[in-house]
Every structure is written in C-alpha cells, then in structure tokens.
Amino acid sequence: MAGGLKFKEAQTSMLVADSRSGVQVAAAEGSTKKADLAVGGALFGGGAGAAGGGYGNTNEGKIIAAAFMDNYNKIVTVVRNDPSLQRKVGSLKQEAAAGGTTKAGGGFNEGDVVVPKIANVKIMAGPSDTAKSLGTLPRGEELVVIGAEKDGYINVQGANGTGWVKVVLVQKR
Fold first, then answer.
1. What is the 3-state secondary structure (H, E, C) of the chain?
2. Average pLDDT over the chain, rounded to whole?
3. CA dihedral sign, ordered 93, 98, 99, 103
C-alpha cells in the first residue's frame, strides 16, 4: 500500500483604476488551495493490482485560474456595493437620450487649486484650440480657478499670469 498528499496554492490580487484620473477605485485578493490525494495498492501473490488517484494530474494553471475567479468575484462585489461606480441608466443610448453626459475632470469651483496632469500643458489666451498660446505649464504647477468652465476650458491664474487650460488636462490638488 502506498499513498501521497500534495498541496497547491495560488494567490492573486486585482486593482481597478479610473482611467481618466488614475485613482484606484477597488481592490481585492483571491486565493485557492488544493490537496491531491494519491492512493495505490498491489497484491503480488495473486497477480492482481489496483491504483487510484484523486486529481493527481491537475496542473498549476487550473489553480491560478481558480484564484483569479475568486478575485474577480470579490471585485464584482466591491463594485456592486459602491453606488458611485454604477451607471444611473440601463445603457449608453438611454443615458444619451436622457441628457446625462459625463464630463471628464468637471466640477471645478472658483478658488479651487488645480495642477496639470502632464507636463507641457498649454495655457491659452481664450477658451479655444485656435486661441493664442501663452506658454506651457510644467507638471505639478499650482493654478487657481478664477472663472467658470467654457467650451471644455477653465479660466485659471498661475504664478506667471492668467489664461485658459483644457479641463481634461488638470485635476484638483
């Protein structure tokens, strides 16, 4: 009589991030364990033999896939329990018909401090792509919102003067 016991384990982690802001919105860890039991026996006197194995040929890929599935189920639970990560209507077509469009980076008020998300963001003389460029801003330069949003631009004041920058290129400090 012979036997054996093998253990396999996998752990995974997933992060869900907002692609516009780069902010992590959900995280979860998944894991799975598996034990393989192998039993074998032989009877030499009568010429008979027997062998058995329980999941003895399971490869590591199945273990890792099970850990990812556990992880995915936990991420879905996190998203379902957070109303800010859910759509208000059934489909994009219905949302467009209802007039509920989402503006990236919107929601700035006068006095808010914003910074460029990337280096070399252009500051313009007016709220237009065709307006005169007044210069570029380094990443991290603080700007104060001094006016309302217009045509996808926001009026700001920095250390070197005032101008307009694209809303999608700045974020609140």
1. CEEEEEEEEEEEEEEEECCCCCCEEEEEEEEEEEEEEEEEEEECCCCEEEEEEECCCCCHHHHHHHHHHHHHHHHHHHHHCCHHHCCCCCCHHHHHHHCCCCCCCCCCCCCCEEEECCCCEEEECCCCCCCCEEEEECCCCCEEEEEEEECCEEEEEECCEEEEEEHHHEEEC
2. 77
3. negative
The answer on 158 and 120 residing in a single domain is: yes
* Residue 90 covered by a domain: no
What is d(CA 74, CA 29) in angstroms, rounded to the nearest whole number? Answer: 8
Q: Judge if pTM exceeds 0.85.
A: no
Domain carrying residue 152? 113-172
Look at residue 16 in the predicted model and tell me its pLDDT. 85
Please check whether residue 143 lies inside any domain of the structure: yes
Instruction: Give domain status of residue 103, yes or no.
Output: no
Query: Quick check: 58 pLDDT over 70?
Result: no
Total domain count, the chain: 2
Read off the pLDDT of residues 123-159 as tens digits, 9 standing for 90 and up: 999 999 899 999 999 888 999 999 888 888 999 998 8
pLDDT at 53: 45
Domain at 129, CATH number = 2.30.30.40
